[in-house]
Amino acid sequence: MLTLTCPYCGVAAEETELHPGGESHLKRFGPGSSDTDFEAYLFARKNPKGVHFERWRHLYGCGKWFLAARDTATLQVFGTYRAQTPTPPAEIVAAIQAARPHWQPDWDTSPPRNAEGDSAPGLGDDPAPNPTPARDSFA
Amino acid sequence: MSVMTPASDATPQHGATARRSGRYSVFAIVRQAMGLHAGWGRAWASPEPRRRYQVVVVGAGGHGLATAYYLGKNHGITDVAVIEKGWLGGGNTGRNTTIIRSNYLQDPSAAIYDKSLKLYETLSQDLNYNVMFSPRGLIMLAQTEHEMRGYRRTVHANHLQGVATRWIDAPELKRLVPIINIAGPRYPVLGGLYQERGGTARHDAVAWGYARACSDMGMHIIQNCEVTGIDTAGGRVRAVETGRGRIECDKLAIVVAGHSSALAGMAGFRLPIESVALQALVSEPIKPCLDVVVMANTVHGYLSQSDKGEMVIGGGTDGFNNYTQRGSWQHVEETVRALIETFPMLSRLKMLRQWGGIVDMTGDRSPILSATPVGNIFVNCGWGTGGFKAIPGSGWAMAELVARGTPGPLAAAFGMDRFAEGRFIDESVAAGVAH
């Protein structure tokens, strides 16, 4: 069973204690954005076979949303981190590269801001409405 | 005098009628029995790939093979290669619970799934291959009041769409399914949506039958041939790079279910698809006790008995992106726990095998049959947890799309532009739970 450590309460939570929330680090496009951006924000997903950054909620624990880096082909978990983090922090990248030497981040890594991710301006506890529709397995 | 000419069979012209693998019939069985069954030809050829084809179909599952078959049969295009990473029918085609039905809610869904069911009804004859289609009937249980109202509505919608279904009450359901416990303490069975034309077929045989028919038309089925890159220039595809070399094509059809995002990525566009694991399990074989398919969407399990006597059980998807063809134990437990309340006799059975497949889920739980940003690439994906029942209709509609470049009436509503336009075909309520 998949086990993820909640970065808020420190509990190593089993899959049944968690609720998956789909791809993380989506940039929200709302009213006023172009149709293409809005559609991509709502529906287009990377869906990689390999390293995936995703949202999870510690549903039957502290109840908070957090983020995780996981390999979708092997189910290896590289680490979890707080939701108030605009891009995956350096230690997560290092953990991924330790296991996948050829893997490279696909985001701009030059300004290492908010690596601890505690108080990013404009990103509260509820970063974006859940963009993925309710999963079948939780109907 | 040194030239040997074949005694009887002339070279088949365009493979029109001559079956290279020989026509299957009772006479063929008798004839082969005389030779101790040593003379059966291979059902399909395994040729070396050519440098170029008119159409390359990626994915030799049911949908890919059906696409190729109807390209040849309906549109006269036989210069086709179907290339497959693994073995033919080894993905979701060989991993599903073989349920066939067409009782959907939305008009476009009802049309394509019912076309599919109608093609299934004559598929064994059309392909000269026994796909063991068994229209044994299919019941979707209503175990809550709102499910009952929902299915009654679906019955009316089905009537308007010309799909014959009816509502049956609990006593009639009990007569049809003697092993059911209609007085479950938590989820009593209140009735069901009954489609008498629904049923099952042998999943492997569907892939094998299409493969044989394609091969007989002179198409190439190339297994163990993974696509590693897609060469595009000026918004057009030129070739696919594969483990067995570069293959050029005029048109490319991507029909790869759970791996659609990866192939789309190679061609430079994204799809509204997420891949998750869906799993199934079968019990040890027992004597016949269930001659209909039963789907219980509230408790999230579905059940039929195979011709071998195994109880075939399907459950829910894992909730997270997943490319492992395994599935997880708690979903097995969830599914079985729910089903033994409704079918108490199952609690005595040992389970033989459990496996998973990677299903491609769209936001509205309806498929995508569409042109793409790359002009001569077409995708057929997003069948999610219910693709097997759609194989013939999907292939029919996809072949029309690939041959003409524009969708026919069956595929028209399933373009991926519907996500930009908000024109969803929302089957998550009607059918998205258990297929």
Briefly summarize what is shown.
The complex is a heterodimer of chains A (139) and B (435). By secondary structure, chain A is an alpha+beta fold. Chain A has helices at 35-42, 90-99; strands spanning 3-5, 12-14, 19-23, 51-57, 65-71, 77-82.
How does this structure look, described?
The complex is a heterodimer of chains A (139) and B (435). Chain A has 139 residues and is an alpha+beta fold. Chain A has one domain: Folate-binding fold, CATH 3.30.2270.10. Helices cover 13% and strands 22% of the residues of chain A. Chain A contains two helices and six strands, in the order βββαβββα. Chain A has a four-stranded antiparallel beta sheet. A two-stranded antiparallel ribbon of chain A has the order 1-2. In chain A, a hairpin with a 7-residue loop joins β4 and β5 (65-71). Chain B has two domains: 53-97 and 203-272 and 364-421, FAD/NAD(P)-binding domain (3-Layer(bba) Sandwich), CATH 3.50.50.60; 99-198 and 275-359, D-Amino Acid Oxidase, Chain A, domain 2, CATH 3.30.9. Chain B has eleven helices and 18 strands. Chain B has helices at 26-34, 62-75, 107-121, 123-127, 145-161, 170-176, 203-216, 260-267, 329-342, 391-404, 418-421; strands spanning 52-58, 80-83, 99-100, 138-142, 166-169, 191-195, 199-200, 220-222, 227-233, 236-242, 245-254, 273-283, 293-296, 301-305, 311-321, 351-362, 368-371, 377-381. In chain B, strands 1, 2, 8, 9, 10, 11, 17 and 18 form an eight-stranded mixed beta sheet that branches. An eight-stranded mixed beta sheet of chain B has the order 5-6-4-13-14-15-12-16. Chain B has a two-stranded antiparallel sheet with strand order 3-7. Chain B is globular and about 65 Å long. Chain B starts with 25 loop residues before the first helix and ends in a 14-residue tail after the last helix. Chain A binds chain B through residues 1-2, 15-16, 19-20, 22-23, 35-36, 39-40, 42-49, 52, 54, 70, 72-75, 132-139, and chain B through 259, 261-262, 270-276, 297, 300, 316-324, 328-331, 361, 363, 365, 385, 419-420, 428, 432-433.
